[in-house]
Amino acid sequence: MLLQQLESLPFEMQKELVSVLRNTAHRFRLVCTTVEDLENMTDEGRFHDELFYRVASLPVTMPALRSHISDLSGIIKSILEKSTNPYCDAKLIEFSADAMRVLENYRWPGNGLEFSQVVTRIAASTESRIVGDEQLPMRLKELGQWPTLEP
Question: How far apart are CA 141 and CA 101, in angstroms?
């Protein structure tokens, strides 16, 4: 079972989840994702301590996509190669330099999932081999940009 953004679960529901986990006779794997540090939240009393100890047995830290901006073209290729959509062919689709600049400047608050969805959607809907910046969603150009540094 996958619970995404576990830290956003209201405290009362956290207590109910602890009760379910404590009383379940079934064996299953529970995988949770978080954006915030659950240990800090637990120390601050913002996250249920028993739930933390039940879910934090094997933490895996994933760096944000924005810390791997230089790898975007390789990530795009990987996304397109793994896609089951016949229109998403990594050998047929390229992103122009302007489009890559937009992708590199966007903050990607949804991290890899958001990036993968954007790439897959564009690849499936484009009729051209080269994807230009005009084909990118407007929000990538307007929202979440890194601040530009003045020389």
Answer: 10
Distance between CA atoms of residues 145 and 80, nearest Å: 25
Taking each helix axis from N to C end, the angle separating 97-105 and 72-82, rounded to the nearest 10 degrees, works out to 100
Interval 102-133: pLDDT, tens: 999 998 888 888 999 999 888 888 888 899 99
What is the sign, positive or negative, of the torsion defined by CA atoms of 140, 142, 146, 149? positive
Q: For 3-57, how does the pLDDT look when each residue is reduced to its tens digit (9 = 90+)?
A: 988 999 999 999 999 999 888 877 888 899 888 899 999 999 999 999 999 998 8
Task: Output the DSSP codes for 121-150.
Answer: HHHHH--SSEEPGGGS-HHHHHSSBPPPPP
List of domains in the chain:
2-55 (no CATH), 65-142 (1.10.8.60)
Cα separation of 140 and 133, whole Å? 10
pTM of the entire predicted model:
0.64
Retrieve residue 89's tokens.
């062919």
Query: CA nearest 119: which of 148, 147, 143, 140?
Result: 140
Q: Which two tokens stand for residue 127?
A: 């009729």
